[in-house]
């Protein structure tokens, strides 16, 4: 039977666009449906605008630090609409680039919400397209828990387009988005509070890194309220009034909820077609991203594994390889995923935390570390520190974890991730010549294990 398309991708985010382009490059006839914007969360309301805001939020400190180096800059005032609108122009430019990439690859872009009629037919409005295979790449959406006054809170989606910049901000959630936005708000001049329900935020990261980041955010004046839950939010004009479970109250101008993102699976017709979901609504897939329905695949945030753009892209590459080439089937290695949190200073991390390594390998683990004042601050006097940490399996000398808090931690950890993917040993780290003077050289000069 002949179909309109070999692959119909639903969702033009990072994963969907990559799968569509690469599949078309492998000779497939491909369409991609999108109801909102090209580039998905990452380009429009995620990684890219967030990083621009992080850059923007560091200039107040940079201007202060510059004095020790002989420069006096006129301070402020900070012009929020200028940053916001410059960011939006850049995002629009990227939307255009995504369109050109798809056009250039010969992928048909279909605007509108796509619904599966059956495993081989996709409907958009009044049009129905037939396809041999379907790829669900619809991403995820921020979730706000059910509490009185939740409608008075915003999510990261709205934070990128605020009409006015708040004087006071409360961020709820202690994951990636919470700590990143707390840093952005504080850096841009808002009096910022971060509320987290547990005893220490950034669950899943190395414990020492978590404690260290908490201390650094505290130094920057962010009011960290751990073991705290918001019970209700009330609006008083433009202001927001929060009741906390401790009995305390908090008045603020903005409440941002960063309490996780839920896979976008509603209204796609997945139930009709029989695609199995997990309890959070994520699409269940096998190791090659095939769902419970044989010709329907899924990648990215919607499969509820790692909500990270580069992972979605890697999964998209697997789809193009597995469906449209004769090469051996590929899947993503989820064991060594480097990641960065753009809090200030940044976190960069790859591999096992110290606790996870000890749990898996017991006493066969050495930990090396360095904790120091970055060279730049020897003149400025700023009390910011950098932490670096290597976790090594003693029996085969393999470096199995690398963690850092400090300026450009993501840039530094990316290179270490290459070495660790290649199976580097601690002895090979030690033989590597350092680049002097850098912070990164500490990773090749840690000689004495700190704990065994
Ligand atoms: P995360 O899952 O990272 O963090 C959610 C936070 O909210 C956790 O601290 C969690 O607490 C807390 N939380 C969850 N439910 C509730 C609740 N009902 N009440 C109070 N607190 C709650 O989600 P984010 O929203 O921060 O980010 C979503 C994902 O996006 C991330 O996991 C990440 O994969 C991705 N991302 C990646 C970035 C990067 O690579 N730099 C940047 C931004 C996002 P607890 O720990 O106790 O469960």
Helices and strands in order, then pairings?
Blueprint: E1 5-10, H1 14-25, E2 30-34, H2 40-45, H3 47-57, H4 59-66, H5 80-105, E3 108-111, E4 114-118, E5 121-124, E6 127-136, E7 140-142, H6 156-159, E8 168-172, H7 176-187, E9 191-195, H8 207-219, E10 223-225, E11 230-236, E12 239-244, E13 249-252, E14 255-257, E15 261-263, H9 270-273, E16 296-298, H10 309-324, E17 339-341, E18 347-351, H11 354-361, E19 365-372, H12 376-380, E20 386-393, E21 398-405, H13 409-421, H14 426-431
Parallel strand pairs: 1-2, 1-6, 2-3, 6-16, 8-9, 8-14, 9-10
Antiparallel strand pairs: 4-5, 5-6, 7-15, 11-12, 12-13, 17-18, 18-21, 19-20, 20-21
Helix pairs in contact: 1-5, 1-10, 3-5, 3-7
The structure holds NADPH dihydro-nicotinamide-adenine-dinucleotide phosphate.
Give the structure's gist in a few sentences.
Helices cover 32% and strands 24% of the residues. With 452 residues, it is of the alpha/beta class.
Bound molecules: NADPH dihydro-nicotinamide-adenine-dinucleotide phosphate
Uncertain runs with pLDDT below 50, 5 residues or more?
A: none
Question: Largest sheet, described in full?
Answer: 7 strands, mixed
CATH structural architecture of the largest domain: 3-Layer(bba) Sandwich
Helical residue percent?
25-40%
Distance between the termini: 63 Å
What do we call the CATH homologous superfamily of the largest domain?
FAD/NAD(P)-binding domain
Per DSSP, what share of the residues sits in E-state strands of 2 or more residues?
15-25%
Mean pLDDT: 97
Question: Which class of secondary structure composition applies to the elements?
Answer: alpha/beta
Radius of gyration: 24 Å
Number of helices: 14
Global shape:
globular
Q: For the record, what CATH class of the largest domain applies?
A: Alpha Beta
Q: Tell me the domain tally.
A: 3
CATH topology of the largest domain: FAD/NAD(P)-binding domain
- By DSSP, the count of extended strands is 21
